[in-house]
Amino acid sequence: MPTIRFEGQDYFCAEDETLLDSLARHGVMLPSSCRAGACLTCMTRALKGTPPKSAQLGVKDTLAAQGYFLACLCKPVEDMEIGLASVSPRYTARLLGKELLNESIVRLRLDIPEGFTYRAGQFVNLIRASDELTRSYSLASIPADSYLELHIKKVPEGRMSTWVFDEIEVGDELSFFGPSGDCFYLPGSSERPLLLAGAGTGLAPLYGILRDALEQGHAGPIHLFHASLATAGLYLIDELRRLADAHEQFHYTPCVLHGDAPDGGMQGNIVDIPGQVLGSLSGYRVFLCGDPPIVNGLRQKSFLAGASMQDIHSDPFVFTPA
Span of the secretion signal (predicted)? Predict the structure, then answer.
């Protein structure tokens, strides 16, 4: 009988018994509802051991890759340690570089702490040591880089972004925990087209996902739409154009809501533009990042254009002023 370790206690799972039923038999009630793999309420994470593939039916591939599964479908075949949430250790990293990408966005590059691993597109939680103020920022770097990269927008009266822009200096030690998030590229199905769309610093995770997909040999079309209110708010235009020139499968479209768009770009609402350009999104893997209203609008439009909800990965940003 497999042994299931949960919150420091060991429980034995009987033959042909689901993990959910086994723990309930021992008096441990995990969150659950339908008990049939439909509602996803009993989503659980394997910290050690491997859940059977049948327990990951209906779970997004990016979550399955991190060990998430459905307790109501899981009939363990080996010992496992499970948790309802992952707890990240706290890391410290030295600031290697600080550079303005436009008038309101700064790029930070940090050294990589020993033992820290991540997937391009995930985020970390940066901590201000003086008062433990914490904010989440996506990683724009990829594991092949020799540094971690963050793009941080200056928020009016934002306590964290003001500190980042005005006070921290190259050589400072910064603390963070993570990584978190399931908006990242997975190898496999390399011929399937990818849609990457977002606004503002939503480009950070998309830039990482794009470079990671290219690094891993993605051969299918990759379309990146990055938006801002006006051209001045866009950034990394030259870098993205160079990538497009170097990789025939990659297509970059800068978008603006007001005024003239850069060469090769489009003017209009980013929520509508991918559908106007690509038409049907059936078969696409979709990655959406930026402000919640934009992400929600893009998610709805992508689904209506034929993308499966299982293939739509999103990372909405929430800015917190003072």
Answer: none
